[in-house]
Amino acid sequence: xxxxxxxxxxxxxxxxxxxxxxxxxxxxxxxxxxxxxxxxxxxxxxxxxxxxxxxxxxxxxxxxxxxxxxxxxxxxxxxxxxxxxxxxxx
Length: 90
Description:
Layout: E1 4-7, E2 12-15, H1 24-33, H2 36-53, H3 60-75
Helix pairs in contact: 2-3
């Protein structure tokens, strides 16, 4: 059974997550306010960030940086800026 939530990212009703994907209060907020579609958009941004900045998820500072970017992207309307990201030249 899918749940419908009001996705604050998409600003519309959308299919919610099946379960809480992130720990703590932030995870609850994501579960309640962020749709599957919005989360998948974040997942692709997250992959770019991890690759571009060579983040190590075992490193607490790297995880904190990623969390800050996630909050900015999902809740504050900021697109992820990949510093020094240049599309591959032809």
